[in-house]
Design brief:
The complex is a heterodimer of chains A (245) and B (472). Chain A is of the alpha/beta class and 245 residues long. Chain A has one domain: NAD(P)-binding Rossmann-like Domain (Rossmann fold, 3-Layer(aba) Sandwich). Chain A is globular and about 55 Å long. With 472 residues, chain B is of the alpha+beta class. Chain B contains 14 helices and 21 strands. In chain B, helix 10 runs antiparallel to helix 11. The chains are: A alpha/beta (245), B alpha+beta (472). At the A-B interface, helix 2 and helix 5 of A face helix 1, strand 5 and strand 6 of B.
């Protein structure tokens, strides 16, 4: 039985992924900042998919707690075959752009917290020479834009980190997949202006799960963002900075 | 958790936690009838804590909204706040012995069928569409084709958790906070936000309905047929011609049946009794011009429908076709044109039903406003404060919004009222407050409970202001 840890399990995309893994018979540990909420999602999986799921708390920003958290989670799961890194924050970009504390907190949640956890996970998986790590990034990490560069830079850094890790682990049987999400209809985009081409979280989860099954390395969700971002990257900086993207 | 980590990496103070009130989206909303529209600040929390912040951190008027399938203005709050609960749709516990499901308010009837029909369970009560949420259904205390046997949805709900304006959560049942329970079921979301509820599902032997199709030429025959059908069957409903003239007005096609026993099915169906392959869904791609449904097309449709409803003393119905004929046509609410439509549903007490129905049908026929989608059904016993059903016959008709429609419906209101009947709030968009007051005699008692639960009247809607439901 596949044993999968989902970090940031209360997001709708994580919930959709959990449902797909549970339906395929995986044993899940759902970790989130709000364990009460993670428990409700675990209960939902149990009722819908008949698969008992574990739930617990973790705090991405509390780096020192990560080692113990992971040890406990692996112990409760009885092993670890896969980790999905779904947590992240995109709260108030306006504030993060003028308040260092807000910016650093966002980066801690999106990048450094993820680095801390992924490093521990990679150590574990390298030792057992098998497993997978799915890292949920964002197309916002493809190019710095005035509108969301704090968020974007944290996601861009995460992409590079995952890319490097993939390079290190390719000789082992550990599969590292980077997901570059386009806009998804969740809390993160709710009420935000200029949100285009949005897809539902269920559809996003579906596409991510399919990419995982065919062992993709880098996947844009949905695929059209590969071309959109390809175009966006080509615009010369002198012009790009003037665009209100 | 410690402020400074042992490995020298200091913990960054968290500053962008979702402690503040979540973001709203300015949206123009309507009910299923696409009349009226209202500009609202719409929230869609994904976690309980977010919902709590929406409810308790802002004192502006708020109304919960489910799938938006109420026809009129029940889930609208013009220039105020609306909270959509569709993302709070977790199923929390299920006991296969008792059939009791505990689920959040955003779970839909369609999800319940998807998950539980293969295990041999069906919602105990379902309205004519499965794309409704549990919370919305309970707030409107919906009924189904089995009302004569099973009463309304509330009869199958054993407990509910309600979030009050303070953000406090209260468990309500017939034993605990019984007043609040009774005021909340059928309370149109005005006592607080229904968070989760416990619902007893119905065990079923298969996904097929075994029953009959009875055709009657006039109302007297239809009433007789209903009496007989309701003795034999859990489910019964009639399509009725409300547009024809003398001779065709009031003719009915009654579908009635029970869930079929496995032994009654043919061998292939009996092997997989809960599986019926879905059919290709149809859709109405755009708003039809208002002229599309006129008295000629309506009469034509009715004649065809009646002719093609071949009477049959024994037949099987696909559950989708039997319970949800319109769910197979996406956006069917566009057929009535740009101005939208009003569904008028009323009920008469049993003794007045025959007379009430025929005078109303005649008035509708004379007005030439009737539409083809008209339903007749007999109700049984009913409990509740603002719940709509009462023992008697109920009629539901769609009317496209046209000039003079509301004056006409005011006249129908008076005809229904003088016979002791009432109009369904979940479908209403235009009733007058004094008429509502006269139709719902339990209102003062409901208001006293509401005043205690929500003393600042934070929960209100376009409907509650229009009908002056809120306590003064």
């Amino acid at each position: 039985m596949l044993k999968v840890l989902i970090l940031g399990a209360t997001s709708p995309i994580a919930r959709g992924l959990a449902m797909r893994f549970a339906t395929d018979g995986a044993r899940l540990y759902l970790a989130a900042r709000d364990p009460h909420e993670a428990r409700r999602i675990a209960d939902d999986l149990e009722v819908r998919a008949g698969a008992p799921a574990l739930a617990g708390a973790f705090d991405a920003e509390d780096f020192s707690s990560h080692e113990e958290f992971l040890r406990n989670a692996v112990g409760e799961l009885g092993g670890l075959d896969g980790v999905i890194v779904c947590f992240g924050a995109h709260a108030e970009e306006e504030r993060a752009q003028v308040e260092p504390h807000a910016a650093l907190s966002e980066i801690a949640q999106n990048f450094t917290g993820a680095v801390s956890l992924i490093t521990l996970v990679a150590r574990h998986m390298e030792a057992q020479d098998t497993g997978f790590i799915i890292v949920i990034g964002s197309v916002a990490g493809e190019r710095g834009r005035a509108r969301n560069y704090v968020y974007g830079s944290s996601k861009g850094a995460l992409h590079l980190f995952a890319q490097g890790l993939r390079g290190r682990l390719w000789k082992t049987a550990v599969h590292v997949m980077t997901v570059k999400l386009g806009t998804v209809d969740t809390r993160m985009t709710w009420g935000r202006e200029g949100v285009l081409l949005s897809i539902s979280p269920e559809r996003a989860a579906d596409l991510i799960y399919r990419a995982y099954r065919r062992k993709s390395e880098v996947v844009y969700v949905p695929g059209r963002w590969r071309f959109i971002m390809g175009g966006v990257r080509l615009i010369p900086e002198r012009q790009f900075k003037r665009l209100s993207l | 958790m410690s402020a400074v980590a042992t490995n020298q990496v200091s913990r960054i103070p968290s500053s962008n936690r979702p402690s503040a009130e979540p973001k709203a989206r300015r949206d123009v909303l309507a009910g299923w009838g696409r009349y009226p529209f209202a500009e609202c600040d719409l929230y869609r929390p994904e976690k309980l804590a977010e919902l709590q912040a929406v409810v308790a951190r802002n004192s502006r008027s708020l109304i919960p909204r489910g799938a938006g399938r109420a026809y009129g203005d029940a889930a609208l709050n013009d220039q105020n706040r609306v909270v959509n609960l569709e993302r709070l749709n977790r199923m929390l516990a299920f006991d296969a012995e008792t059939g009791v499901l505990r689920a959040e308010a955003g779970v839909t009837i369609a999800e319940i069928i998807d998950v539980f029909m293969p295990r041999g369970f069906f919602p105990p009560v379902t309205p004519g569409t499965r794309f409704v949420t549990l919370g919305g259904s309970l707030a409107a205390d919906v009924h189904g084709k089995n009302h004569h046997r099973a009463s309304s949805l509330a009869a199958h709900v054993t407990s509910l958790d309600l979030m009050l304006a303070s953000g406090e959560i209260r468990r309500c049942s017939r034993e605990e906070n019984a007043d609040l329970f009774r005021a909340t079921v059928g309370g149109m979301g005005l006592t607080g936000v229904i968070l989760e509820l416990e619902l007893k599902l119905k065990p079923i032997p298969s996904a097929w309905i075994e029953g009959e199709l009875i055709r009657t030429a006039n109302l007297d025959q239809a009433f007789d047929a209903f009496e007989r059908a309701d003795e034999k069957y859990d489910y019964s409903v009639a399509w009725i011609d409300c547009a024809g003239g003398r001779g065709t007005l009031g003719r009915c096609a009654i579908n009635a049946g029970n869930f079929a026993a496995r032994e009654a099915l043919w061998s292939r169906a009996a092997q997989e009794p809960y599986r019926i392959a879905p059919r290709f869904p149809l859709a109405v791609p755009f708003e039809l011009p208002a002229i599309a449904l006129n008295s000629f097309t309506v009469n034509g449709f009715n004649t065809f429908y009646y002719a093609f409803s071949r009477p049959s003393a024994h037949r099987f119905f696909d559950w989708r076709w039997f319970f949800y004929p319109l769910d197979s046509i996406r956006n069917w609410n566009r057929i009535h044109g740009r101005r939208g439509f009003v569904q008028y549903q009323c009920v008469w007490p049993l003794a007045e039903s025959r007379a009430g129905l025929s005078e109303t049908l005649e008035a509708i026929s004379r007005s030439r406003r009737g539409s083809p989608l008209t339903v007749l059904k007999k109700f049984g016993a009913q409990d509740g404060m603002l719940s709509f059903p009462m023992p008697g016959y109920t009629l539901a008709i769609d009317f496209p919004v046209t000039d003079g429609l509301f004056e006409f419906l005011d006249e129908i209101d008076q005809m229904v009222l003088k016979r002791g009947g009432r109009v369904y709030l979940a479908k209403d968009a235009r009733m007058r407050p004094e008429v509502f007051r006269a139709m719902y005699p339990n209102l003062p008692r409901w208001q006293s409970i509401k005043a205690k639960a929500d003393p600042e009247n934070r929960f209100s809607s376009s409907l509650s202001r229009r009908l002056r439901i809120d306590p003064e």
